[in-house]
Write a structure and sequence with these properties.
This protein is α/β, with parallel strands linked by helices. It has two domains: about 30 residues; about 120 residues, HUPs (Rossmann fold). Helices cover about 50% and strands about 10% of the residues. It has seven helices and five strands. Strands 3-2-1-4-5 form a five-stranded parallel β-sheet, sandwiched between helices. Helix 3 crosses helix 4 and helix 5 crosses helix 6. The N and C termini lie far apart (about 45 Å).
C-alpha cells in the first residue's frame, strides 16, 4: 500500500516535471523564433499630453518621436536619458520639432531610472496620458517600468520599428539586443518588481 502511494506520487511528479520541461522548451523556442511578437508593445495611434523618447537605440527613436509629434499625437516631447540627450534633441529639431516643444531629463542611465526621473516632470506638466517611444525590442520593459512607477498615469507604447524584420538583423547587433532583452526582463522583475506580463 505504502509502495503503491510512493509510485503514484513519483509518476505524478515525473509527469508534472516532463510537462514543465516541455512548456519551458516551447516558451524558449517561441521567444527565439518570434521575438517581435513577444517583445513589441504598440498601443496604436493615440493622443496624449507628452511623448517620452528614451535614449539608446541607433538614433531611430527621436525620428519616431518626431513622426508622432507631427501626426499630432502629443504637443510636447520629453527626452529621457543621460548618454545621448543632446544628439536626440538635435535629431528632433532636424526632423521638424520646435525647440519650445522639447523638454529634457538628462540624468537617467537605465530604463527604470527613465521612468523614475521622468514621472515627476510629467506630473509637473500635468500630463495624464503619455506615449513612450523606444525600440520595438525594448518596448515591453519600458512600458511596464513606467506603469510600475506611476500606475495612476496612462501610458502607451509607440515604438520604432527599425530592424523589425529579421532579415535586417544581419550586420547589426539586433540579435544581441534581443537576447539581452529577455535577460533584462527577468532581471527587472526580480530586482524591481516590474512584471513583464
Amino acid at each position: 500500500m505504502i509502495q503503491t502511494r510512493k509510485n503514484s506520487w513519483r509518476r505524478r511528479l515525473l509527469i508534472i516535471s516532463a510537462a514543465l520541461l516541455v512548456l519551458l522548451v516551447v516558451a524558449g523556442l517561441s521567444a527565439w523564433l518570434f521575438p517581435q511578437k513577444i517583445l513589441t508593445m504598440d498601443g496604436g495611434p493615440v493622443t496624449a499630453d507628452v511623448i517620452v523618447v528614451l535614449g539608446g537605440g541607433l538614433h531611430e527613436r527621436p525620428e519616431r518621436a518626431a513622426e508622432l509629434f507631427k501626426l499630432g499625437e502629443a504637443p510636447k516631447i520629453l527626452i529621457s536619458g543621460a548618454g545621448d540627450s543632446d544628439i536626440n534633441e538635435r535629431l528632433l529639431k532636424k526632423n521638424g520639432v520646435p525647440a519650445a516643444a522639447i523638454l529634457m531629463e538628462g540624468k537617467s542611465r537605465t530604463t527604470i531610472e527613465n521612468a523614475e526621473f521622468s514621472v515627476p516632470l510629467l506630473r509637473k506638466l500635468g500630463a495624464r496620458r503619455v506615449i513612450i517611444v523606444t525600440s520595438w525590442y525594448h518596448s515591453r520593459r519600458a512600458l511596464h517600468c513606467f506603469e510600475h512607477v506611476a500606475p495612476d498615469l496612462i501610458f502607451y507604447s509607440r515604438p520604432s520599428y527599425y530592424g523589425y524584420p529579421r532579415v535586417e538583423w544581419t550586420g547589426t547587433n539586433l540579435t544581441g539586443y534581443v537576447k539581452t532583452e529577455y535577460v533584462k526582463l527577468l532581471g527587472y522583475w526580480v530586482r524591481y518588481g516590474v512584471c513583464p506580463i
